[in-house]
Amino acid sequence: MMPGLPYNTTMETPATFFLVGIPGLQSSHLWLAISLSVKYTTALLGNTIIMAVICMDYTLQEPMYRFLCVLAAVDIVMASSVVPKMLSIFSSGDSFISFSACLTQMYFVHAATAVETGLLLAMAFDRYVAICKPLCYKRILTPQVMLGMIVAIIIRAVIFVTPLSWMVSHLPFCGSTVVLHSYCEHIAVAKLACADPMPSSLYSLIVSSIIVGSDVVFIAVSYNLILQAVFGLSSKNTQLKALSTYGSHMGVMALFYLPGMASIYVAWLGKDIVPLHTQVLLADLYLVIPPTLNPIIYGLRTKQIQERIWSMLLYCLFYHSNVGS
């Protein structure tokens, strides 16, 4: 490493990087590949079903379902940006990735996670309005407002990710191309540069902290107000049902936010304390687990979506049995 070198756009970039996978756990790669395949298949199937049901059923056009549909699409993008290559590494040892493919993967990982946290905030706000201000729900969350929220979330993600990708793409790489990670995680790639990676790393840390920190605060406020309204209900059964629903929501959010932020801060503050394989597993966890659980927690546990899925399955079975006979 030569930290004194400035950014240099004329220095050659490497043709390929070599992704190690999970350092220190290479002997477990096959088992990790099996587990990852199950989770990825579940994520693809679950999110595709959610999108199909919501898009095909005209009765599921409330803002909550539209946000859920967009979240399902983002989950597919987020998981698909890393899992296929990870499976290739874990199962066959195909660890090489081109420089352009690495930057593309990095861009989609960061953009998808930034959009996901914004959507979780939008869905929390939707539930707050529905429960705490039900008479104003249709007046507040109009289709125009909902579309504006989604567009604003995407624009925010693009504004955040584009400068980060630009900074990494203009770093000079003249030494090792071995990335000690299972995907092109920003810090793992930037530290291979022959120039000081501090500007891009500091930018990533500050902007991630601002975006996630503000979203988490507003989500916490929304759910706190929701729970206050729930505890004000007279029916104990309704209270328990609401607590079960929102408790599972908070659990999924914790699995998204805690490993994600932990992986960022550990890379900065605890890199000499926390084992490298634990750091990589934390970074992998928040990209794989939420897309697997979101369609179950937010979708399949929703009564209206359950009914539509059963209707579709029964229709398909009945239609095919009639055609076969």
TrEMBL record:
Gene3D superfamilies per record: Rhodopsin 7-helix transmembrane proteins
Pfam family, one: 7tm_4
Keywords, in A-Z order: Cell membrane, G-protein coupled receptor, Membrane, Olfaction, Receptor, Sensory transduction, Transducer, Transmembrane, Transmembrane helix
Ranges annotated as spanning the membrane: 30-55, 67-87, 107-125, 145-166, 202-226, 246-268, 280-300
InterPro entries: GPCR_Rhodpsn, GPCR_Rhodpsn_7TM, Olfact_rcpt, OR51/52/56-like
Protein function: Putative odorant or sperm cell receptor.
Protein name: Olfactory receptor
Gene: LOC103553154
